[in-house]
């Protein structure tokens, strides 16, 4: 396997060495020269390490491995030295309200002495480290690292796709039946039209799901219906010329002189060979977007009913292949529980019902870890049934415990990891680092996206040189890319928002193995001990059964940078002050209660502190000592009623999370100019709103106004105008709904605005649709969530909202709502659609509108009966158009009417229920009637 963490702390160290050269640190010129020398040498070593990282680990000389590990360790030590200096010279000066002259002078003298001592110490440290760097550089030349090449493998590795290409149909489970029929259905679409266009299908999914096997079976079934056919495996680092020549070979168009042609000539040759033919071509295991752009030129969009199938692990590649309306993406899903069991038992016991009773529970546990991935199921089954005999129950249990921790040693398991590792090798260096960090979390963990991204930031995994954009937004892009590459399993909340992920046990096996090889994360789970210097510590099971001590009692704390705990860690608290360079501390869900956290406040290097859901009742004033803190999370602690005033000293704080029970912010929040995310702002004075204008980097916040005035509105709109990066705002009132037309008419939101929410019952109300939607809805290109309250909704408003290009979630409440027609071309991306009104007119949805809507809520007047709409006199059939929604899963409709129309309302309700029962999606529905002429109302 390749060297996983190739460059140690180089990415964050090099910018800090440049930082030391600034005049503000007042280093002597001789020391600056030493720093420059260090920087140049470390840059050179970083380049060498990257070369080492590109070579498979088993093909590296042992001396080179040792040299690489030594350089990485040296980079960590150097960064610790630099950080200690930067912390000591940062005076964190905060002017007091009425400082006494003598006290100020004393503080200044102490500060000067401390800085002078720190400069002297770093001068000595740089001299010492330069000597060590020179020794390492000498060994680099001796080991000839710069000219490293892979040692030739004793055995040429077999392409792992070959097994999938030559499977017997009788060996397949979960492929025949629903899956191949779904592919066949997609392929047949368009065959009944007069002009049979080229149809492209891309099958996308996680490595090992059986994409190649499925497509090969479909290919073999239907290739006889075409004039010619080709099945071409591609893989990583593919050569365009070879791919086109392989296609020509499969099509029977290969000629010996083809090797002399360039790419353009080969494409022309292929185009000519396919002219006027109905062809079937499969491009298997596609990784590169640019590769597809080139080879796709060969496939003209003729009218012969040709079919092109691609398989890929990368969603972005699949979307590129299927970019037109006549093309489809097939998302490969894991096997069902029944198919997983059938495949597993057939491999071990030769038939499905052959599992002995004593193996049933451990079988279920193993299959749960396999997660429906055929490759994992087959691999583990082959381990358990080696040498034509079934292993013992104890061996099954041992394998179960090893899965997900990178501890499995069987050759079959190693082959599975090699197949999965292709996705890892294809990652750029920064994404490899971010992926390895997931080994901090136990198997089956639900990993919150925001938490993970903030931890990456605190670890300095996001390069400083691209920090002109929000670091969090860059981190979000990293997260999305890992999902896009099928390495993380996305988890969506009830509103369809990607908010978390899980790591499949097979991928976790891989990254735990790589992490352990490079000493990237040390996991303590009751059965493991640390190896070498512990830099990142994951406490998953602190005390091993039968023992009374923890691993912490025998471990050096001096170099630990990160700690994450996943069980009560009270024993950790007494030793917190020993972790002198700790940057990340996650104590979430540990029952801390009233335990003394005194040692915590001396950890001046902390960037990330998670104390959420720990039972804290008070946050100490001493938190202000953590001057380098970037993330502070005390959410889930409802006992905390106020934040200490010292929190405003945390000038580097980017994220502050807490509960609404903490409803008063201290004065001076405007000092926190780095702030990007703030849980909740309770506005009880004009001062707070004005101070918000200093937090120009705010991206996400919730605000509640205790009262509203024109002066407050003006100040709020002015402060919002300073926030060019704002993405999500939630606004509410402490009491009755208030008009906030200045927000709708005077504020010009940034184009990056993604969500504007106004909490029901405590909402701010607009007299009409905000100007920034009325004037040009297309410019709000990222607005995906809109939840607002209007005085009145008219047809024109709905038409404008329907043109918002990225809108996924619409909640629109009003006092009055005229008759509304949801037009056929409206709301193309909306998945959740809600219209609420105290006095609604009828709502009708045209066919073609809301094609992706899964959840629909309507408050509507009585709809027009079909016969009445056509000029007839019938009144039995009522048509809201809801039945036309193809993606419908959940419906809530309230017919609002007067008591005099009760019978008509009942007919409308009954008719809608009948149509919903016949809907092909069998959606959940709730249909009711409300009397809006009465204060109490009545419900059916």
TrEMBL record:
<dbReference type="InterPro" id="IPR041118">
    <property type="entry name" value="Rx_N"/>
</dbReference>
<dbReference type="GO" id="GO:0043531">
    <property type="term" value="F:ADP binding"/>
</dbReference>
<dbReference type="InterPro" id="IPR032675">
    <property type="entry name" value="LRR_dom_sf"/>
</dbReference>
<feature type="domain" description="Disease resistance R13L4/SHOC-2-like LRR">
    <location>
        <begin position="559"/>
        <end position="923"/>
    </location>
</feature>
<dbReference type="GO" id="GO:0042742">
    <property type="term" value="P:defense response to bacterium"/>
</dbReference>
<dbReference type="InterPro" id="IPR027417">
    <property type="entry name" value="P-loop_NTPase"/>
</dbReference>
<feature type="domain" description="Disease resistance N-terminal">
    <location>
        <begin position="9"/>
        <end position="91"/>
    </location>
</feature>
<dbReference type="Pfam" id="PF00931">
    <property type="entry name" value="NB-ARC"/>
</dbReference>
<dbReference type="InterPro" id="IPR055414">
    <property type="entry name" value="LRR_R13L4/SHOC2-like"/>
</dbReference>
<protein>
    <recommendedName>
        <fullName>RGH1A</fullName>
    </recommendedName>
</protein>
<dbReference type="InterPro" id="IPR036388">
    <property type="entry name" value="WH-like_DNA-bd_sf"/>
</dbReference>
<dbReference type="GO" id="GO:0002758">
    <property type="term" value="P:innate immune response-activating signaling pathway"/>
</dbReference>
<keyword id="KW-0547">Nucleotide-binding</keyword>
<keyword id="KW-0611">Plant defense</keyword>
<keyword id="KW-0433">Leucine-rich repeat</keyword>
<dbReference type="GO" id="GO:0009626">
    <property type="term" value="P:plant-type hypersensitive response"/>
</dbReference>
<dbReference type="InterPro" id="IPR044974">
    <property type="entry name" value="Disease_R_plants"/>
</dbReference>
<feature type="domain" description="NB-ARC">
    <location>
        <begin position="183"/>
        <end position="352"/>
    </location>
</feature>
<dbReference type="InterPro" id="IPR058922">
    <property type="entry name" value="WHD_DRP"/>
</dbReference>
<dbReference type="Pfam" id="PF23598">
    <property type="entry name" value="LRR_14"/>
</dbReference>
<dbReference type="Pfam" id="PF18052">
    <property type="entry name" value="Rx_N"/>
</dbReference>
<dbReference type="InterPro" id="IPR002182">
    <property type="entry name" value="NB-ARC"/>
</dbReference>
<comment type="similarity">
    <text>Belongs to the disease resistance NB-LRR family.</text>
</comment>
<keyword id="KW-0175">Coiled coil</keyword>
<dbReference type="InterPro" id="IPR038005">
    <property type="entry name" value="RX-like_CC"/>
</dbReference>
<dbReference type="Pfam" id="PF23559">
    <property type="entry name" value="WHD_DRP"/>
</dbReference>
<keyword id="KW-0677">Repeat</keyword>
<feature type="coiled-coil region">
    <location>
        <begin position="28"/>
        <end position="55"/>
    </location>
</feature>
<dbReference type="InterPro" id="IPR042197">
    <property type="entry name" value="Apaf_helical"/>
</dbReference>
<feature type="domain" description="Disease resistance protein winged helix">
    <location>
        <begin position="440"/>
        <end position="511"/>
    </location>
</feature>
């Amino acid at each position: 396997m390749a060297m996983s963490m190739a460059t140690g702390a180089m990415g964050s160290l090099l910018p800090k060495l440049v930082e030391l050269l600034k005049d503000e640190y007042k280093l002597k010129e001789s020391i600056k020269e030493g720093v420059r020398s260090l920087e140049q040498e470390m840059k050179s070593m970083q380049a060498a390490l990257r070369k080492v990282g590109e070579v498979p680990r088993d093909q590296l000389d042992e001396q080179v491995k040792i040299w690489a590990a030594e350089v990485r360790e040296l980079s960590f030590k150097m960064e610790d030295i630099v950080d200690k200096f930067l912390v000591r010279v940062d005076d964190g000066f905060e002017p007091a309200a009425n400082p006494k002259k003598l006290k100020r002078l004393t503080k200044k003298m102490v500060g000067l002495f401390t800085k002078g001592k720190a400069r002297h110490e770093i001068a000595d440290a740089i001299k010492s480290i330069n000597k060590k760097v020179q020794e390492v550089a000498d060994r680099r030349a001796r080991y000839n690292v710069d000219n490293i090449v892979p040692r030739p493998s004793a055995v040429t590795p077999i392409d792992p796709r070959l097994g999938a290409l030559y499977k017997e149909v009788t060996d397949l489970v979960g492929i025949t039946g629903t899956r191949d029929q779904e592919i066949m259905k997609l392929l047949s679409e368009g065959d009944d039209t007069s002009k049979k266009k080229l149809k492209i299908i891309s099958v996308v999914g996680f490595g090992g799901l059986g994409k190649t096997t499925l497509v090969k079976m479909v290919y073999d079934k239907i290739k006889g219906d075409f004039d010619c056919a080709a099945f071409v495996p591609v893989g990583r680092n593919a050569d365009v010329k070879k791919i086109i020549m392989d296609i020509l070979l499969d099509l029977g168009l290969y000629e010996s002189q083809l090797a002399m042609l360039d790419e353009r000539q080969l494409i022309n040759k292929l185009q000519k060979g396919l002219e006027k033919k109905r062809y079937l071509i499969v491009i298997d295991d596609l990784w590169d977007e640019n590769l597809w752009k080139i080879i796709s030129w060969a496939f003209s969009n003729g009218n012969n009913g040709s079919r092109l199938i691609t398989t890929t692990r990368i969603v972005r590649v699949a979307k590129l292949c299927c970019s037109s309306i006549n093309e489809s993406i097939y998302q490969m899903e894991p096997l069902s529980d029944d198919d997983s069991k059938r495949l597993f038992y057939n491999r071990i016991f030769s038939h499905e019902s052959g599992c002995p009773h004593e193996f049933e529970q451990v079988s279920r546990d193993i299959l749960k870890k396999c997660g429906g991935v055929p490759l994992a199921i087959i691999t583990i089954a082959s381990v358990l049934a080696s040498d034509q005999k079934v292993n013992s129950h104890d061996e099954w249990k041992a394998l179960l415990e090893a899965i997900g921790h990178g501890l499995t040693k069987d050759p079959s398991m190693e082959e599975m990891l090699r197949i999965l590792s292709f996705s890892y090798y294809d990652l750029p260096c920064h994404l490899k680092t971010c992926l390895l960090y997931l080994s901090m979390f136990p198997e089956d963990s639900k990993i919150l996206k925001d938490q993970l991204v903030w931890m990456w930031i605190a670890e300095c995994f996001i390069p400083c040189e691209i920090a002109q954009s929000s670091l969090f937004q860059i981190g979000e892009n990293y997260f999305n890319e890992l999902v896009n590459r099928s390495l993380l399993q996305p988890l969506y909340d009830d509103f369809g928002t990607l908010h978390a992920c899980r790591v499949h046990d097979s991928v976790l096996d891989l990254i735990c193995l790589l992490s352990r090889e490079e000493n990237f994360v040390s996991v303590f789970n009751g059965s493991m001990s640390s190896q070498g210097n512990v830099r990142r510590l994951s406490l998953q099971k602190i005390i091993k059964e039968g023992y009374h001590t923890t691993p912490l009692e025998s471990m050096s704390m001096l170099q630990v940078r990160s700690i994450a705990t996943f069980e009560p860690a009270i024993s950790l608290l007494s030793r917190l002050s020993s972790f002198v360079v700790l940057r990340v501390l996650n104590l979430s869900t540990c029952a801390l209660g009233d335990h003394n956290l005194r040692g915590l406040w001396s950890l001046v290097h902390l960037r990330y502190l998670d104390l959420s859901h720990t039972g804290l009742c008070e946050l100490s004033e001493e938190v202000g000592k953590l001057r380098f803190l970037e993330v502070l999370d005390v959410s889930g602690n409802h006992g905390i009623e106020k934040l200490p005033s010292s929190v405003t000293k945390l000038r580097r704080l980017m994220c502050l999370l807490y509960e609404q029970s903490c409803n008063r912010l201290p004065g001076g929040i405007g000092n926190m100019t780095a702030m990007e995310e703030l849980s909740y702002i309770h506005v009880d004075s004009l001062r707070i709103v004005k101070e918000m204008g200093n937090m120009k980097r705010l991206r996400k916040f919730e605000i509640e106004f205790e009262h509203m005035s024109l002066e407050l509105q003006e100040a709020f709109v002015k402060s919002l105008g300073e926030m060019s990066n704002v993405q999500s705002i939630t606004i509410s009132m402490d009491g009755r709904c208030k008009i906030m037309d200045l927000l709708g008419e005077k504020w010009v939101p940034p184009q990056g605005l993604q969500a504007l929410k106004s909490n029901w019952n405590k909402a701010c109300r607009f007299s009409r649709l905000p100007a920034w939607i009325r004037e040009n809805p297309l410019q709000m290109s990222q607005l995906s969530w809109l939840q607002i309250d209007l005085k009145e909704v008219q047809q024109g408003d709905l038409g404008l909202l329907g043109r918002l290009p990225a809108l996924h979630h619409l909640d629109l409440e009003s006092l009055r709502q005229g008759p509304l027609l949801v037009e056929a071309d409206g709301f193309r991306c909306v998945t959740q659609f809600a219209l609420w009104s105290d006095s609604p007119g009828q709502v009708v949805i045209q066919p073609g509108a809301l094609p992706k809507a899964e959840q629909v809520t309507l408050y509507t007047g009585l709809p027009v009966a079909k016969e009445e709409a056509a000029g007839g006199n019938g009144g039995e059939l009522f048509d809201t158009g809801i039945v036309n929604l193809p993606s419908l899963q959940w419906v809530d409709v309230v017919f609002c009417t007067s008591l005099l129309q009760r019978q008509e309302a009942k007919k409308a309700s009954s008719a809608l229920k009948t149509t919903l029962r016949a809907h092909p999606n069998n959606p959940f529905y709730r249909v009711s009637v409300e009397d809006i002429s009465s204060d109490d109302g009545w419900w059916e």
